[in-house]
Amino acid sequence: MRRTAGIVDPVSLSGADAPTPRAVPRRWLVQELWLVFGLSLGAEGLRALIHLIADATSGVALKAQTATLNGSQSPGRPWLDLSLQLTSLLLGIVPVLLVAHFLMRSGESFHDIGMDTRQPQRDLLRGTALAAVVGGAGLGFYLLAHASGANLTVVAENLPHVWWRFPVLVLSAAQNGLLEEVLVAGYLLRRLRQLGWSDGRALALSALLRGSYHLYQGLGGFAGNVVMGLIFGRLYQRWGRTAPLFIAHTLMDTVAFVGYALLVGHVSWLPVPG
Fold first, then answer.
1. What DSSP element (H or E) covers 69?
2. Is residue 67 classed as helix, strand or coil in its secondary structure?
3. Residue of 41, 104, 170, 183 with fewest CB within 10 Å of its CB?
4. How far apart are CA 144 and CA 142, in angstroms?
5. 66-68 and 153-155 as β-strands: parallel, antiparallel, unpaired?
């Protein structure tokens, strides 16, 4: 007799367990987790680790190296560059669509991870407050990590100064928020609960995964995002909603990307490439 999972709803706003619409074989859930993260953020974590090893063994101090988040993909050819930027952004949300497919297969939907518009005002207030607190602390942590030599110099953007520069930065922030919060908060924590993991164990894995694909920024980027993962993951476990986390993440990245573009070279406290 095959073991099944997906019988218990991992999170609800009331805190009570509720039946999942359709039981799914346990091995299917395990396989889909490997597929989703093997094609997306899990693979990015492995690449980031290799990049960090290469940077740390290059003979150049980490703080003297750079990690570019939004770079030009076709310098000197703005229309081709825009086409490549938009293509990358669209391809970047394919794992989110894959998650939607797997949720539908088990009789679930984005409603079950709280990625919907049922609580717009509450989600916006929660997301804005979270962005202010975590974003401010994150900037301070990055500056300390960079000063200590544990982090590369993060170049938030070096796009050409054309009309689509800021719209692409905002879209990039939204894509990051959608991809990371749907996969690493809502979907992963839901599936791990359905597989019988404790909340604490699942939260630790989620936070470590979030930190792993930021290793290319250095140990500071890893540590800072592990802390962010612990906060965001615990709030998902309490609220049962991904939407405020998506809002917070999008706001933080938008401020980081656009703020960098406006401030770099004009303020002394922002690290710039040597």
1. none
2. strand
3. 104
4. 5
5. parallel
